[in-house]
Amino acid sequence: MILITLVLLTVFILNIFLYWLLFLKVKNKERKILKIFYKVFPLILTLSIIPIPILNTSFLKIYFYNNYSYFEYYWIYFLLLGIAFIIIGINFAKRAQKLYKAKILNKNNTELITYGIFRLVRHPIYSAWAIIFLGVSIISDSLTSLITCVLIFVILEIHAIIEEKLILIPKFGKAYENYKKKTPNRIIPTPLNLLLIIITIIVVYVGFLNFN
User: Taking Cα atoms as reference points, which of 159, 166, 157, 162 lies closest to residue 188?
Assistant: First the structure.
C-alpha cells in the first residue's frame, strides 16, 4: 500500500504542477485545452487523495499486513472527530459552491467574493478538500494517512499562495490586498487552526502510548 500511496501522491502533485505549467505556457487562457483541464483538475485531485486513507485503513490489515491500527482502543473517540471534520468540510464546499454559482449566474466574473464562507477563509474549496481528507484519514485509523495529511495541507497551501500571486492579485489588485488583511486565513480558519494543533498533539501522544 505504501507504493500505491506514493503513486497517488505523485499524481496529486503532478496534477497541480501541470495546472501551473499550462497556465504559464499557454498564452491564450481561453484555449480549449485549458478549459478541459480546468474542469477535470478538481476531479483528479479528489480521485488521487481520497483512496489513500481507504487503502491504508487498519480494517484491511487482514489483507495487507502493513495496515496496522494507529489509535487502537482509542479509535472510537477519534471516529466521532473524523465524522465532525467530514461534515465541516462538506459544509465549506457547499457554501463556497453556492456563492460561485451565484457569481456565474449573475455573469459578474469580475466580482471578488468576500462574504459568506469567504469571510472565514480565502480558499474554502481547498479547505474543504483538506478537512474532508483529514476526517477520512482519522476514521481510517492509519499512520500513513495521517502523515499524508500533513503533505496534502502543505501542497494545497503552496498552491493557494501561487494562485494568489499569479491570478487573484493581478486580477483584483488592491481589493484583494485589502481582503487579505481582513481575512488572514488562507486555508484553515481560526479557531479551527488552533484546534488542529491541539488534535495533532493528542494524536502524537496516543501514538506514543500505543507504540511504547
Answer: 157
**What length is written for the chain?**
212
203: left (phi over 0), alpha (psi -120 to 50) or beta: alpha
Q: What span, in angstroms and rounded, lies between the C-alpha atoms of 182 and 114?
A: 9
Tens digits of residue pLDDT in 161-185: 999 999 999 989 999 999 999 998 9
Whether the upstream peptide bond of residue 191 has omega within 30° of 0, thus cis, is yes
Cβ atoms within 10 Å of 94's Cβ, excluding its own: 13
Report how far apart, in Å, the C-alpha atoms of 132 and of each of 30, 135, 154 are: 32, 5, 15
pTM, to two decimals: 0.89
Tens of pLDDT, residues 62-112: 777 778 888 888 898 899 999 999 999 999 999 998 888 777 655 556 678
Domains of the chain as residue ranges with CATH:
2-210 (1.20.120)
